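Support reply, case 0932

Customer input (verbatim):
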Amino acid sequence: MRIPFTSWVFLIPICSIFLSFCIFVEAGQCLDSQKSLLVQLKNDLTFSPAATSKKIAQWDQTSDCCFWSGVNCSDGYVTGLDLTNESISGDLSSLFNFQNLQNLSLAYNNFSGSQIPSEFEKLTNLRYLNLTNAGFAGQIPIEISRLTRLVSLDLSADVFLGATPLKLEDPNLNMLVQNLSELIELQLDGVNISARGNEWCRALSSSLQNLRVLSLSNCYLSGPIDSNLLKLQYLSIIRLDNNKLSTPVPDFFANFRQLTSLRLSFSGLTGTFPGKIFQVQTLEILDLSNNVLLHGRLPDFPQNGSLRTLFLSNTNFSGTLSDSISNLIKLSRIDLSNCNFSGSLPHSMANLTKLLFLDMSSNSFNGPIPSFSMAKNLTQINLSHNDLIGQITSTSWEELQYLVSLDLRYNSLNGSIPASLFSLPLLQKLQLSNNQFSGQLNQVFNFSSHLLDTLDLSSNNLDGPIPTPVFELQGLKLLSLSSNNFNGSLQLNVIQRLRNLSSLDLSYNSLLVEYNGNDGINSSLSSFPNITTLKLASSKLKKFPDFLKNQSKL
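Our regenerated output:
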């Protein structure tokens, strides 16, 4: 997350994007020369027609310009300009006359693929420069390397959102950073650097001894990761995801004693991940996901570990989960899906009270599901495609008032479906198919949520009639009750109330499905505006429903 500059009336903090330090500048009465430059800048810029309520549009020439939105001053001189997300493009010439400018953000604008102006070298007092997704393209000019007072440089572009990438060829990375010895934060995500491991590692380690934030995702970097990187002893945040490193993770990453975040997803990592990296006491975020050739095992976690996010999905990690996972008292997001884990889920997981997101699907976990009742802010639980057994009554589901999605498909769970599941106010997806749940739904069905869009209870041992309140869930898009033992009769007309329904499967039950074409409902009025799939196999249907004749998407 990138934090824009913040303006206060008398004391204005300019904070780093990632790190917890700020500098303070004092606002003063605006000098006429500075106001004139700001007015000139506003006149030179072009605003998107869709732009509304922007900072520059609110600049009032009758007031002190040091109190204009996005403007910071010291002794009457403009020292900070935050023009983030102003939908601007056009001529920046007047910008380069602000000789006292220390902090500048042009992030999230639309400079239409133009090059970064070489005139930036005139802003010799710049300490913070943020051009994230500003719309610039092409070669990064060598003049940026002359801003020797820079503490934070962000030239990132989100190419996944269609941004035109910048590139570093001539100058290359080494030439860009060789004079930026004061840099604490370097973010070049999406910049085409196209460098081998020994090149980019040595370029950084030879010039940026004070670096704390290194973010080079999607930069066309390759490996191996050179040990010279260890010279950057203050590194706290390392982001190298979406590159083609094709290399093992070196042991020396565990020697970054201030490491808080390590993101290496989609990087072609190989070999065995060094277990001692998990032991780094300061580590808060570890993302190794989508490295299918990466092996590893989870160690015993240290007491009072700082880990908040652990993503290992789509890797070759294996082994069991230790009871010591409960030591990660700050853990809020864990994704171990599509790995090779086995064994039981530790009962100690009940102590992970900070959990918000849990995905351990597509492994070989067995045994019962531990209680999650104490994780009262959980929003998603996915334990599907495992070998879990037993009932799911260990969790007091009514405690999980923020639960949005519960996916327990493809296990061997049994017993009744807890009534409390059907009263969760924010629940959108409930997927319990391919288990051995039994009992009658009409004994537990009492939905108070109107947000449910997916209900999949197929391939269980449920019996009795289908409760009529099911057909009052107006938000349902998918309803699958197939391959159970539901019985009794069902008037197909009732499902015409589900205006958002796109997929319905009632197949392979003991139902008598009937359709009354004379019930007064005008079937030509697109009763199923989005329906694409309807399955009524083995439902003793005698009359073809008239409303199906006009379903163009079916």
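We compared this against your earlier run and they match. Two observations from our side: The first strand starts at residue 11 and ends at 15. The CA atoms of residues 532 and 554 lie 4 Å apart. Please reopen the case if you see a mismatch on your end.
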